[in-house]
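User: Before I run my own analysis I want an independent prediction to cross-check against. Here's the chain; please return only the structure tokens and, at the end, one sentence I can use as a sanity check.
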Amino acid sequence: MRRHTSWVVVLLAAAIAVVSMALPVPAAPAAPRVQARPDSGPPGSAVQISGTGFGPSETVNIRFDSQTIATDTTNGTGGFTNNTRIPGDATPGEHLIGAQGETSGLSDFTTFTVTGGGGGGGDWPHLGFDLRHTSFTPFENILSPSNVSNMVVRWTGITGDRINSSPAVVDGIAYVGSFDKKLSAFDVAACEGNLTCEPIWTGLTGDLIFSSPTVENGVVYVGSDDDKLYAFPATCATPCMPIWTGQTNGDVRSSAVVKDGVVYVGSSAGELYAFPENCTGQCNPTWVADAGNGVRSVPTIVDGVIYIGSLDHKMYGFPENCSNPCQPLFTGLTGGTIQGSVSVVDGVAYVGSDDGFLYAFPAPCPNPTCEPLWLGRAGRDVRSSPAIHDGKVFVGSGDGLMYVFPTICENPCSPLWTGSSGSAKPIKSSPAVANGVVYIGSGKGRLLAFPEDCSNPCEALFSYLTGGAVRTSPAVADGRVYIGSIDFKMWVFGLPV
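Assistant: Structure tokens:
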């Protein structure tokens, strides 16, 4: 009997073992996982954070480094997807994005690389920064009112003659034109640590370059006094040959802008040209518009209207979609020549005139003849282009002062405050606004930095004397300020290492 019982036990144990082997073993819970798409971008950029493997229906805290930037609730399987933004004050470099469940305590993280800003990561793509010509970058986060006074010269880029062209900075390359007839390209990273730096390539035009370069879709556009617009490849070698050239009827001291496959630029002959972006060889314009007299300003494009100033004292508004002969939608008359560009924000077009006033016109104008909303007295001739940010208009004047007006004002408009360049020499430079600081060049040869929020008397936070007059406008990108001088140099400023 005992022998029988032992066999029963053995058989039962064997059966249990077989059944146990046949049954599936429960899988271990999946480890939590967090992903960020995209995994790089400038401060303030949109990012999608997704996670799996957390507790079901629990609250998760999403962090950027140690800062909580969002919270979400997982679904029944422990997953979530959250659309948020990178903090606006995030500094360039690698950071951690993580999520932790409040109930489960489970957590995971991934990396996110913060780049600069502008058109594509640390960029200032053209004079005026954007198509509205605000000259404001929302992406600068290194230089600020608290540290800009500590700036030093990081390096200077050497050209063969005086610089009246304002720099553009895209994808780590700084571009500038010169009276040596060349467009010069400098590798920013390679130039760091050197007192002076030579260009990595140059492209030769047929005459002096007053025009400022514009970089778009891998192409650098710059005008020349040989009556041509040049389109150079952004990646090139000396001697760099243009992809195409566009013939105009006068000096091209205006700078180009690109929108929806069309390149717009003005000419000293008093015309606005629209060239196809995808062109080769000798490029013919799609259409040409008569703007009365010489055009030196940069076209501004807002809501289907192209705004441009003319030496015939008028601001013109042309339709973006036009054909020959292109006729203006409206004109706004000022009391002097217009050499600066028009800036358009919140339905108002701001432009300076050689009669010493800043004009504010409705944008777009409801009638063919446009009347200003208000005028602001700015000392002497205003050849500077306005910069606009946070309800303020910044503009330089021929009396050596930078004037700051409210965007919404009564006629006549009085300035909120003025910033002195320390000299009566005219300011032809246009301001640039970044992270609470306003940068501008002076006829005396200085780069100046003022606090954006100031009152009279407003003292400069930073002032540096270059080797010659500064008639160009600053570009601000990735903690660096670039500006050209007639001393043949492009000066680059930043915080000390």
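Sanity check: Residues 437 and 451 are 5 Å apart (CA to CA).
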